[in-house]
Amino acid sequence: MKEYTLVYSKSFQTSLETIIEEWENELALSPASIKRFVGAIQKALELTKNFPTMHEEVSEIYGMDIPTYRIVIGKSYALFYRIDQKKKRYL
Length: 91
Prior knowledge:
Elements: E1 5-6, H1 10-25, H2 31-50, E2 56-57, H3 59-62, E3 69-73, E4 77-81, E5 83-84, E6 89-90
Parallel strand pairs: 1-6
Antiparallel strand pairs: 2-3, 3-4, 5-6
InterPro entries: RelE/ParE_toxin, RelE/ParE_toxin_dom_sf
Keywords: Toxin-antitoxin system
Protein name: Plasmid stabilization system protein
């Protein structure tokens, strides 16, 4: 089975940077806590490279026309992605 390529959107990068800044400055979370959270995101994304449909398909729940999957990280953070089958990548 061919591994899928992950393509990060600019909005994902910006959102993650903003959240990390809030945790550091407003919530005063420890660097270790932030590192664990970011590690959980990386692990989920790495698994998705080989199993792109392993997460919940949520397009109907959110009223989207394109199949969209959701990765839940912890209790309050979710990543959404779509699969491009032709180019073997997920966004």
